[in-house]
Write a structure and sequence with these properties.
- The protein is built from 9 helices and no strands.
- By secondary structure, it is mainly α.
- Helix 2 packs across helix 7.
- The chain is elongated.
- The relative contact order is 0.14.
């Protein structure tokens, strides 16, 4: 058993919760590999799919709720700080505000799938004065879609690898193409 899988099995849901929470707060700790590994472990019945989904959902909503309140309180200043990491900060602020202004709910649903927007959507929603319960509903739908997609993908490939371990050799040869896919 590999070390990351062993750590995930040992600390399970608490580690997954903390990993997703830290990643969603904006610390560059990618949650995708952890969620894919957790999904693979649900295929082997080492972890429970509903509990993994619940741990990730609670963590993502807690982080996004915190960002929402920061955005409501500090609004434009927070957006400028977040956009300083981009190549064109002024364009980043304007484009984010324009995009969110037109498609608030849809933006929240698909924000988790777009790097950068995942961190910025919640504070912008707060800045625009979106109602908190409406924010939680649409952000929750987006979080469920994001988590469900990653966990289901991990579960699917975990089940395939359990049935046919030689697929791992094949995927190693074509990992670049798989990454692009």
């Amino acid at each position: 058993m590999e070390l990351p899988t062993h750590i995930l099995l040992t600390y399970g849901y608490l580690l997954l919760f903390a990993w997703v929470l830290v990643g969603q707060l904006g610390i560059p700790l990618p949650a995708t590999p952890m969620l894919l590994a957790a999904g693979a472990l649900t295929a082997q019945h080492e972890l429970s799919f509903p509990l993994v989904l619940l741990a990730g959902l609670v963590a993502a909503l807690a982080a996004d709720g915190a960002w929402f309140h920061v955005g409501r309180r500090y609004g434009h200043q927070m957006l400028r700080i977040l956009c300083k990491l981009s190549l064109e900060p002024a364009v980043c602020v304007r484009r984010t505000q324009d995009s969110f202004g037109r498609r608030r709910r849809v933006t929240l649903i698909f924000a988790k799938f777009v790097p950068g927007l995942a961190t910025m959507a919640a504070p912008v929603a707060g800045q625009f004065g979106m109602e908190y319960w409406s924010f939680l509903l649409f952000d929750g739908i987006g979080c469920l879609l994001w988590l469900g997609t990653l966990l289901a993908t991990g579960r699917f490939f975990g089940d395939l690898l359990r049935r046919n371990p030689s697929l791992l050799d094949w995927s190693g040869r074509f990992s670049g193409a798989l990454l692009l896919l």
